[in-house]
Every structure is written in structure tokens, then in C-alpha cells.
Amino acid sequence: MDSVNSSSSPVESPSPSFRILIPSPIGPLALELAGLSVQRLVVAPKPAVVEGFTPLGRGAAPEYVEEVVGQLAEYFAGARRKLEIEPELGDLEPFARRVLRETCRIPYGKTRTYRDLAAMLGRTEDADAVRAVLLANPVPVLVPCHRLVLGGGKIGAWVGGSERKRWLLAMEKEAQREIDGEADLDP
């Protein structure tokens, strides 16, 4: 997911948005989509947010919803390492877009510290600003901000809660271990 949509005015007119609530191992996910572009993803949304979303399986959904839901299900099962769902980040400030783009480059099953990410952006002194951007990530999981941790082995906060962050990190590490183990068996 190296290509993060950063244009706020697409050439073609966008598909109308569709709001869906889907189950996941980390709790319900509220997704607002326009085509295969996700404009917002809320982990374990509060009841006031849920009201505006259609539960999966109720009513007709646009064709692209099946693709998005399928990719997320594969990811949560540990069978997909890279989501090919485009997040829409056009309304964010340039620094926030850079932070989220760089976050997408963190390999599956790996972590970096906020300071590491700030250094990758050439702004080592801005680790707190990087952390603030990631805590406001409008599309967690798609932009894997759960892969950022504090120094000293501390997990830190996550937009979906620290327990869900732990679950995602453990799931990715286990799935990666399985892949690495399979690779060792090849001649």
C-alpha cells in the first residue's frame, strides 16, 4: 500500500459513499467507502457512530463492498499481508499524509518506534507530532499505525485501544512466523 491517495479532487467523479458495519476479531469496524477507496474506518465505534452504518448482510451493498470485506477478512485471518484497499487521505495536512504514507512502508509483522518514523521523515525531533498524527489516523488497519510502538518495548496507545493493538501485532507476528517457517522448508 505504498500509493496512498492524496488528491482531494479526483479527475473522475467519485462513486457515492457507502457506510457499512462489519464484524472483525478486534470488534466491529465502521467503514465509509467510495468505490475501493476508504474514507474512514472506525474500530469498535460508539453507538452514536453505528447508527449511520448498515450492518453487513442487511440490504443491498455496492459490488465493491464484497472486495473490501473479503480483503479485510483475509488480513484478520493472517492470510493477506498487503491490503489493496485505497485509503483516501486528501483532506489531511501534508505532514500527516507523509507520516501515513511512511507508516504504510513498515513491513507486515514488524514494528518501528515513533522516533524511528520521525527519523525516516528527516524530522527526528518530531516524534511526538508523528505519534499525534497516528493517534488521529482516519483509516487504522489500512494505514498500519498499530505497527508503531514506544521505545523501550512499550506498546503505546492506538486509535482502537491498546488491547486491539496487541492482538494485531501478535496476529501479524504469528502469520509471519508461519510464512518464514514455510520458506525454511523449501529446497
Word description of this protein:
With 187 residues, this protein is an alpha/beta fold. About 5% of the residues have low confidence. The chain folds into two domains: 70 residues, Methylated DNA-protein cysteine methyltransferase domain (Double Stranded RNA Binding Domain); 92 residues, Winged helix-like DNA-binding domain superfamily/Winged helix DNA-binding domain (Arc Repressor Mutant, subunit A, Orthogonal Bundle), CATH 1.10.10. 26% of the residues are buried. Helix 4 packs across helix 5.
Short account of what is shown:
With 187 residues, the protein is of the alpha/beta class.
Q: Compute the CA-based radius of gyration.
A: 17 Å
Q: Strand order within the widest sheet?
A: 4-1-2-3-5
Secondary-structure element order, as H and E? EEEHEHEHEHHEH
Report the principal-axis shape: globular
Helix/sheet category: alpha/beta
| Largest sheet descriptor | 5 strands, mixed
This entry's quaternary arrangement is single chain
What is the level-2 CATH architecture name of the largest domain? Orthogonal Bundle
Write out the CATH superfamily name of the largest domain: Winged helix-like DNA-binding domain superfamily/Winged helix DNA-binding domain
Total domain count: 2
Low-confidence stretches: 5-14
Q: Which helices and strands appear, and what pairs or packs with what?
A:
Layout: E1 18-22, E2 29-34, E3 37-43, H1 47-50, E4 54-55, H2 63-76, E5 86-87, H3 94-103, E6 112-113, H4 114-120, H5 127-135, E7 148-149, H6 162-185
Parallel strand pairs: 1-4, 3-5, 6-7
Antiparallel strand pairs: 1-2, 2-3
Helix pairs in contact: 4-5
